[in-house]
Amino acid sequence: MTDEDRAASPAVRGDRFSGGPAREFMSSIDADRRIFEADLAVDRAHVVMLAEREILDDGDAGQILAALDAIEESGYDALPDGEDVHEAIETAVIDRIGPAGGRMHTARSRNDEVATCLRLALRDGLLDLQRALVEARRQLIALAEAHRETLIPGYTHRQPAQPTTVAHWALSYESALARDTGRIRDAYERTNRSPLGAAAFAGTPFDIDRERTATLLGFEGVVENATDAVAARDAFLEATAAATGVAITLSGLAADTIEFASDGLIALDDDYASTSSIMPQKKNPDSMELVRARAGDATGGFAGLATTLAGLPRGYNRDLQRADRHAWQAIDAVTDALPVAIGAVATADWPADVDAGTGFGTATGVADRLAMAGVPFRTAHEIVAQVAGDGTPSVEALLDAIDDALDERPPDLDRETLDALLDPAESVASRDSRGGPAPTAVAASIDRAVDRLDRDADALDDARDAVADAASRRQEAVDSYV
């Protein structure tokens, strides 16, 4: 075979494994666009390390690195035929510089190569998702700041329960998204370890430096065991589970918003709504319905990934080629949904004239006040329940019920006190325990939320800076050979 013939053949398959009806079925080239840049980064780090360890001649290293630059400039669509992006890039290098291009694959396997590329791509996806979470929480805190005293009814079992505020409701989702942020950050930390250098699954006899390639790629360390490095996809499972948690949080926010719109508690901006093709009066919260549906995309991705990984024997198995797409399905779903969901509530109009005490929502406050006066709470609960009926009772009915049930009414439970207890604003203001809806309690909660957000934003900036610094160091190393 001449050099020209050899260059025309795919680098890995050659002529023997280049045809047949299963080739397209086994190919991942269409799905690999996502890891094109990651593969080039891995190739560069590996070639630099080989040259530094004198496993690869500096001249060959320079040619290979120059070819990789040209391939990047030409773009993904210019790659030659290949079973996957890894083979296509290697083939393109050999096409450009001849057989010496095949030396770039010294001391590695596609197994550790692909595992490293996927971790780089996952790392980027988790950073993007963290950024979206931080911004979403920032908007929810701003919404709470603006609506500390805007009353709405609170619900349990989708029935009016107690009056609360828009701020208190918004902070409940900020708190949930803060925990989601922590889970994504934890997944990022375990993702940020390099499999490169594990080779097929049993290491290599070459005197490589795994820590060097990890540093060049911005990883915090290496996956220690070579078999674990190529076989494990638990980082993807953890990340997908965490992303699914975000989707479920958003689905609840979307469901609340849809119900609020139906109840007249919120008016979405037109940018987040649509109308009917036949009913001109309709303004539908379509964007939030689609946000709610993204929970299905995410949970489907998690289920698909878990099913793919279940029962795999240790080592590399081709089943893993199908694993990452499930993770992207979940991560992409929530990253896209976050700005829409939060944008919808942040730009909405929250009417100030709603009946926050609907359905006798202040009943618990009356029972609490009786208990504060020394009446056993269960007795107080029964007294108020007798007059609950279908709505808020009159002060006279409450006084009569209290007088009928107690030998002596507490002296400070007069008409004026009961009037205040039935006022939704007074009811909210009275619930000033930590985390409660009273404006004073909400102000303290906002301060704590801002502190927590600032810490998470700083941690995200540090992570992004570390990746950017690694890219700069990698480019400096490449430039020293090209």
Automatic annotation (TrEMBL):
Positions of the Argininosuccinate lyase C-terminal domain: 361-429
UniProt EC number: 4.3.2.1
Keywords assigned by UniProt, alphabetized: Amino-acid biosynthesis, Arginine biosynthesis, Cytoplasm, Lyase
Record carries keyword Transmembrane helix: no
GO BP terms in the entry: L-arginine biosynthetic process via ornithine
Catalytically driven reaction(s): 2-(N(omega)-L-arginino)succinate = fumarate + L-arginine
One annotated GO molecular function: argininosuccinate lyase activity
Broad class of enzyme this protein falls into: lyase
Superkingdom of the organism of origin: Archaea
Pathway: Amino-acid biosynthesis; L-arginine biosynthesis; L-arginine from L-ornithine and carbamoyl phosphate: step 3/3
InterPro entries, alphabetized: Arg_succ_lyase_C, Argininosuccinate_lyase, Fumarase/histidase_N, Fumarate_lyase_fam, Fumarate_lyase_N, L-Aspartase-like
Any Gene Ontology CC annotation: cytosol
Location relative to the cell: Cytoplasm
Domain Fumarate lyase N-terminal: 44-300
HAMAP family xrefs: Arg_succ_lyase
Protein family membership: Belongs to the lyase 1 family. Argininosuccinate lyase subfamily.
Official protein name in the record: Argininosuccinate lyase
Protein encoded by which gene: argH
